[in-house]
Design brief:
The complex is a heterodimer. Chain A is mainly beta. Chain A contains two helices and twelve strands. Chain A has two domains: 72 residues, no CATH class; 70 residues, no CATH class. Chain A is elongated, with a radius of gyration of 19 Å. The chains are: A mainly beta, B alpha+beta. The structure holds adenosine-5'-triphosphate (ATP) and magnesium ion (MG). Magnesium ion (MG) binds next to helix 13 of chain B.
Chain lengths: 158, 720
């Protein structure tokens, strides 16, 4: 892995839906794209990891990649990454945990169960990460930008 | 028929969908409409499941391509896994029946009673929120002291009644003595003495009653607080490791410490005060009305305003106090984080940054407090203002009435004397709004603990195992920490008395399996059986009594070395303790300590080296003479020489016990009957050393790698 000059590589999707990496002649099937900092720097620091969990290629910046590769990587990332962003809180079943939240996210409306107050994590820059009982993480990017009703509900848990 | 109700579409947006398996076809609803896609089951089809970060995927493969992929959140995982199983059986045999012969739960594969239909582990749901009437639930803790509380209440009432006498006496004092005197009559000395001694008597009685009341209530209050704390702590200790994993130490400490204190003060003092305040106000108003209804009516004028204000601020205060509690926990959290990690803090010279973190938490605390105080500080003065205005109105109205000779001056003075008391009561009643909300907030947080059902619950009717042989069976065990699957499809049968070595890379799930076998966590799928009984059917303490565990991170409690060794068997004799220490090769170094077995250790085992701590924890496990011995890297931080010695001792001890040993130095495991090689949560190879070496598989590679680095390893051993 040479970080100064990125090595030549090509990506391809096989008929089985797996990602295939050809890194200077060495071909690996079943490559997974992983964001190293999914919250702090989603578009930088991406790693292509082999099926055994070994790192094959480190990508500093996604936008510097060739068009075809970038599209494939983005596709691979989007089918793997799941962190709905909460846009609006529609309702919560109770202010005491565990309780069910009904929210509108960038991926549609859904319900989830918050087990305890420790499921809400404060991130730098005021972001909030809410983890539900099944381990799905919901992101609130800017709590101050939510509408009044949502802010009032959210405030009861902070 | 089997199905999964999918909740995500292909681009991971929430949208409903169905995947249905019949005995000839697999059907999927298309994302856009009511159309269905179908695939006939044929041998070349295969269905695979995997998941990551809370999203599961089912992929359907044909002979040379991927046909489809469906996604869902993990809440659907159980039915998805079931569908995958059924798909395979269906495709191979053409019928929709589970292959299992025993009666096992189709979802989590736990063995069931022969005739049971519902799996007790699957139907277990923990998601009921606690009721909001938390304060009423505190009665449970006050109940044992109801007699004392009643006595306190009666005393309060009596002392209150006594304080009501003096203002009443001012009326005749005015009208029968002072006013006649002003009008030229001499003072009736005997009458005056009678009134004055009445005043004195009332004061003395009120003093005595007040003293008795305060004393009784203080006693009760302390006792309720102690009960609340110990009950909460006892409950906390019974909760699973999962609970502790998610909580911060400082937060739990704040809840059990300061918040329980606040609640008991509320219960025994403020609540009674409130009750007497209410009664007092009723009684005073009754007296006032009996003297002069019109004047009384005017006096009560501010009441509705105050009630309205209380109503307005109550909600805001409660949420505010909840917030303050949470922020306060944050402050303790910083302390609970930093103090145990003080060595790291100092090693990296980060004192200033930690101080900044503490300051930041305090700043947050201040900000939240300031915001609440804004509301709160306005409240009391406003009540005072209202009552002052009330007083003014009474004066004005009273003077008017006196001028029209409807009442005497005495009546007016009595009224004013009463009103003073009345309004102070109102004031203190308004104060109760704040303490009530504080206590309610604290109660909520305490009941959060008390209501939490352990995720490794005790069964209602545990099976008794009288004679444990020590056979352990893992059946299709799957486990996840939150959304991270760390064990999947683990099958392993350990015979009574067998020694099994668990090997594998770091993070392959060895300690996790141990956690599951000890029932620190319950499996997410499958079951673990001890002598053929599901360990979830056993009483937890009974079960653990059979296990001697040496953990990867040894922990010593504050106390003497002897206490620490005897931790699992507090009544152990001195001979037993020494024997266990000898067996663990701890005896000699203990003798070198200044006070031998009576030396104090603890608070994270300060004062002992890593290897010494490990040996003490081995001795601790050996002392209870368990049927099952679990050694998780038990000798990882002792030098190779000592390790050999401990090994020798252990060799004798493992005989007749089921032993599960984990070690990175494979040479440690040469006594093992079988080795189990784990890789990413799955068992990849099982067998004795020679057999696995002949296989030239994963174990062979691990072993070769270590041989090559033996010199390095030896060096490391010396160094530790
Ligand atoms: N409390 C936890 N929460 C989430 N994940 C965990 C937790 N404990 C362990 N894990 C993860 O589970 C996997 C298995 O961990 P485990 O402790 O069983 O490994 P191990 O085989 O004992 O490794 P080592 O040899 O280093 O002790 C690891 O990937 C680890 O990160
Ligand atoms: Mg471990």
């Amino acid at each position: 892995m040479n970080r100064a000059t990125p090595p030549e590589y090509t990506l391809r999707r096989t008929a089985f839906g797996a990602l295939e990496l050809d890194l200077e002649g060495q071909v690996t099937v079943g490559v997974v794209a992983v964001r190293a900092f999914p919250i702090a720097a989603p578009d930088q620091a991406i790693s292509l990891v082999g099926p055994e969990g070994n790192e094959l290629l480190w990508i500093d910046r996604l936008e510097e990649q060739p068009e075809a590769n970038r599209r494939l990587i983005e596709e691979a990332l989007s089918s793997r990454e799941f962190m709905p962003e909460i846009r609006r809180l529609i309702g919560v079943s109770s202010f005491a945990t565990p309780c069910t939240w009904h929210v509108e996210t960038d991926r549609g409306e859904c319900d989830f169960i918050l087990r305890g107050e420790e499921g809400i994590r404060r991130l730098p820059h005021g972001m909030l990460l809410i983890t539900d009982s099944h381990g799905i993480a919901f992101l609130v990017r800017d709590p101050a930008a939510l509408d009044r009703h949502s802010r009032r509900l959210l405030d009861r848990f902070l | 028929m089997a199905w999964v109700d999918l909740d995500l579409d292909a681009c991971l947006c929430f949208s409903p969908g169905w995947l249905v398996l019949t005995n000839v076809r697999l059907l999927a609803s298309t994302p856009d409409g009511d159309d269905w896609q179908a695939w006939s089951l044929s041998p070349e089809l295969s269905l695979r499941q995997h998941d990551h970060a809370g999203v599961g995927a089912l992929e359907l493969f044909g002979a040379n391509e991927r046909l489809a992929v469906w996604r869902y959140t993990l809440s659907r995982n159980v039915s998805a896994l079931r569908l995958v199983d059924l798909f395979a059986t269906c495709r191979d045999r053409g019928e929709l029946h589970s292959a299992a012969t025993d009666n096992v739960c189709p979802d989590c594969k736990a063995p069931l009673e022969a005739d049971a239909e519902e799996c007790p582990y699957c139907s277990r749901e923990l998601q009921t929120p606690p009721s909001t009437w938390t304060l009423l639930r505190l009665w449970r803790f006050a109940h044992p002291y109801r007699l004392q509380l009643l006595a306190g209440f009666v005393l309060t009432l009596l002392s209150m009644a006594a304080t009501l006498v003096p203002p009443y006496l001012t009326m005749p004092l005015m009208d029968n003595i002072l006013i006649p005197f002003q009008n030229g009559k001499p003072i009736d000395v005997s009458l005056a003495t009678r009134y004055l001694s009445g005043l004195l008597g009332a004061a003395v009685v009120a003093w005595g009653l007040g003293w008795a009341k305060t004393y009784i209530l203080a006693l009760v209050s302390e006792r309720i607080g102690a009960d609340l704390r110990t009950t909460t702590y006892e409950h906390l200790l019974k909760l699973s490791l999962e609970y502790f994993g998610g909580k911060r130490t400082g937060d739990l400490m704040a809840r059990i410490g300061s918040e329980s204190d606040r609640i008991c003060v509320f219960l025994s003092l403020h609540l009674l005060d409130f009750a007497t305040d209410v009664l007092m106000i009723c009684m005073t108003s009754a007296i006032l009305f009996s003297i002069n209804p019109w004047l009384a009516l005017v006096t009560l004028l501010p009441l509705p305003f105050i009630a309205w204000m209380i109503h307005i601020v109550r909600d805001r205060l409660r949420t505010g106090f909840e917030k303050i509690d949470r922020v306060w926990s944050e402050v303790t959290n910083v302390l609970a984080d930093t103090i145990p990690g003080i060595r790291v803090v100092k090693a990296f010279a980060q004192e200033r940054r930690e101080a900044e973190r503490f300051r930041e938490a305090n700043r947050h605390n201040l900000a939240v407090n300031d915001r609440l105080n804004k509301t709160w500080s306005l409240f009391s003065p406003t009540v005072s203002l209202l009552t002052e205005t009330g007083l003014l109105v009474v004066w004005a109205f009273g003077i008017w009435l006196v001028s029209r000779s409807e009442i005497t001056v005495g009546v007016l003075t009595a009224f004013l004397a009463y009103i003073g008391r009345f309004y102070t009561r109102l004031d203190s009643m308004s104060r109760i709004v704040s303490v009530t909300q504080k206590a309610a907030a604290g109660a909520k947080r305490i009941f959060d603990i008390l209501d939490h059902v352990s995720s490794v619950p005790e069964v209602a009717h545990p099976v008794r195992l009288n004679d444990v042989r020590g056979g352990i069976e893992l059946r299709e065990v799957g486990f996840r920490y939150g959304n991270r699957a760390v064990a999947r499809g683990v099958n392993l049968a350990i015979r009574p008395g067998e020694m099994v070595g668990l090997v594998g890379h770091s993070g392959s799930g060895k300690s996790t399996l141990v956690n599951l076998i000890c029932r620190f966590y319950d499996v997410s799928e499958g079951a673990i059986l001890l002598d053929g009984v599901d360990i979830r059917q056993l009483a937890i303490a009974d079960f653990r009594r059979n296990i001697g565990l040496v953990l990867q991170e040894p922990f010593l409690f504050f106390g003497t070395v002897a206490d620490n060794i005897a931790y699992g068997k507090p009544g152990a004799s001195r001979e037993e303790i020494v024997a266990a220490a000898r067996a663990a090769h701890a005896h000699e170094f203990i003798l070198r300590l200044p006070q031998g077995y009576d030396s104090l250790v603890g608070e994270r085992g300060q004062g002992l080296s890593g290897g010494e701590r490990q040996r003490i924890s081995i001795a601790r496990a050996l002392l209870i003479d368990p049927k099952i011995l679990i050694l998780d890297e038990a000798t990882s931080s002792v030098d190779t020489e000592t390790e050999k010695e401990i090994q020798k001792a252990l060799d004798n001890l493992v005989r007749g016990r089921t032993t599960i040993a984990i070690a990175h130095r494979l040479s440690t495991l040469r006594q093992a009957d079988r080795l189990v090689v784990l890789d990413r949560g799955q068992v990849v190879e099982v067998g004795p050393h020679d057999e696995l070496m002949a296989l030239q598989g994963a174990y062979y590679r691990l072993y070769q790698a270590q041989l090559r680095h033996q010199d390095v390893l030896a060096d490391e051993g010396e160094a530790s």
